[in-house]
């Protein structure tokens, strides 16, 4: 295996693909244009930079599809998961990380690997020779996006991903706010107190909604349309869908007891999650926004406990492009019209850090097998990774294809399990037990000669 694998993009997917391939003995050239060519969302040139939340979401591998995905990636020697585990922060049942230390860890490992070389030249064309993985993510550069569009003959689909603001911890009024994870979830005291909670009365909530709906937002650029992904809606868009929407979404008060007024039930609660290991920064959970900066400060400082809040970063929103993968990609993530090219990560239409990284993990392994003149068996659809790749490469309707997080709705149904909410715990455990066995078996299988 002397010919190198070229990987374009040093985000979650590209970093994971490079690691998997290099660890298997395949030389890799990792092309990352940052910081030489920047984007409006990234702040550094590090690999694996987290530009939105610092959370990998639930780490429960028995009752949650995301937690199961974490488990599968760990079993496969994932660099992303190893780095996340090393730099995790208390977050109840979630896996949150110190984003700067996490990205630096990934960067150090990739740059130190003897089989990985790094190029900072921007790739603007689809090559006709060599083996390539394009993991350019939702912020694919305009020149490369045009090349992809010219090759596929289709308009790129797009949605908008929003960034939540980050607050300096010292500026939060802890005489009003209190520390608690929802339902006191977590095995340690740090985890059970991982979130800072700001309570609202009914009058305060109504005033907040009024201010939110009246706030000035940043207009879209020419040619953009507000096709948001429902899993990451701007807070003002949620409010427009109904005045109670936020109270049953990111501001739900259930499972929380005000430490200052334990007998007084909050009407709504704003949660902030720790964003770095020092505990000096907290992001406002679910508060992605397209409000102008001045409006953000004015509106968010109406939240009890945040009246004097100092912001390390304000929220924002940006366009995310993705392929119509069910139409364009085969089951091995190859572009049908140019099978020397694979795509991985968010550009394929998966949504979320770990979902993106998992597609990079799979693409890297597929590339290694191909370089060896062999092929991997299809990943079982009963696994989290298999469910995702099945969805984006054929399980979804190409006419209505939209980005998707991993969820049990993508898995083949179980037999002989109870339906409805009452049977949910048993059903989810059934999904995860079945997936773990299938994934373990898949990892142990040997590659085979192509037919």
Molecular structure report:
With 451 residues, the chain is α+β, with helices and mostly antiparallel strands. The chain has 2 domains: 5-156 and 323-444, FAD/NAD(P)-binding domain (3-Layer(bba) Sandwich); 162-319, Elongation Factor Tu (Ef-tu), domain 3. Helices cover 32% and strands 16% of the residues. It has helices at 12-23, 65-75, 79-86, 99-112, 142-152, 189-192, 202-214, 235-240, 293-300, 325-328, 353-371, 384-395, 424-444; strands spanning 5-8, 28-31, 55-58, 88-89, 94-97, 116-119, 131-134, 157-163, 166-168, 178-179, 195-200, 268-274, 281-284, 311-313, 316-322, 334-335, 338-343. It has a 6-stranded mixed sheet with strand order 6-2-1-7-17-16, covered by helices on one side. The protein has a 6-stranded antiparallel sheet with strand order 10-11-12-13-9-14. The chain has a 3-stranded antiparallel sheet with strand order 3-5-4. The chain starts with a strand and ends in a 7-residue tail after the last helix. Its main location: cytoplasm. FAD binds at residues 9-14. This is Methylenetetrahydrofolate--tRNA-(uracil-5-)-methyltransferase TrmFO. Its cofactor is FAD.
């Amino acid at each position: 295996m002397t010919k190198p694998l070229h990987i374009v993009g040093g985000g979650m997917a590209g970093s994971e693909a490079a690691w998997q391939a290099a660890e298997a003995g395949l030389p890799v050239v990792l092309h990352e244009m940052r910081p030489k060519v920047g984007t409006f969302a990234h702040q550094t040139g590090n690999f694996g930079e987290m530009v939105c939340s610092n959370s990998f979401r639930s780490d429960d591998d028995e009752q949650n599809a995301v937690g199961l995905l974490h488990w599968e990636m760990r079993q496969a020697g994932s660099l992303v998961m190893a780095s996340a585990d090393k730099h995790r922060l208390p977050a109840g049942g979630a896996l949150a990380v110190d984003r700067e230390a996490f990205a630096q860890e990934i960067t150090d490992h990739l740059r130190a690997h003897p089989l990985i070389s790094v190029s900072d030249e921007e790739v603007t064309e689809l090559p006709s020779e060599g083996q390539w993985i394009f993991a350019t993510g939702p912020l694919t550069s305009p020149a490369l996006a045009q090349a992809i569009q010219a090759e596929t003959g289709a308009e790129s689909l797009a949605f908008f991903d929003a960034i939540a603001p980050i607050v300096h911890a010292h500026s939060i009024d802890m005489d009003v706010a209190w520390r608690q994870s929802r339902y006191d979830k977590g095995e340690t005291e740090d985890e059970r107190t991982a979130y800072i909670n700001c309570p609202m009365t009914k009058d305060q909530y109504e005033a907040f909604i009024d201010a939110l709906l009246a706030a000035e937002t940043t207009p879209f650029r020419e040619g953009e349309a507000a096709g948001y992904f429902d899993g990451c809606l701007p807070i003002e868009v949620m409010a427009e869908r109904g005045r109670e929407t936020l109270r049953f979404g990111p501001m739900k008060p259930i499972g929380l007891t005000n430490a200052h007024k334990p007998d007084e039930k909050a009407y709504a609660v704003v949660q902030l999650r720790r964003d770095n290991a020092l505990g000096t920064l907290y992001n406002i959970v679910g508060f992605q926004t397209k409000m102008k900066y001045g409006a953000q400060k004015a509106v968010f400082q109406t939240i009890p406990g945040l009246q004097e809040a100092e912001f390390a970063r304000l929220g924002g929103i940006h366009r995310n492009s993705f392929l119509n993968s069910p139409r364009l990609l085969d089951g091995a993530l190859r572009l049908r019209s140019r099978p020397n090219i694979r795509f991985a990560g968010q550009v394929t239409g998966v949504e979320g850090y770990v979902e993106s990284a998992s597609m990079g993990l799979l693409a890297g392994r597929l590339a290694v097998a191909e370089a060896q003149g062999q092929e991997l068996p299809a990943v079982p659809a009963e696994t989290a990774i298999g469910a995702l790749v099945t969805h984006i490469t054929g399980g979804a309707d190409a006419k209505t294809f939209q980005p998707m997080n991993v969820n049990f709705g993508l898995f083949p149904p179980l037999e002989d399990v109870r339906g409805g909410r009452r049977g949910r715990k048993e059903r989810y455990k059934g999904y995860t037990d079945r997936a773990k066995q299938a994934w373990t078996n898949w990892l142990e299988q040997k590659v085979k000669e192509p037919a």
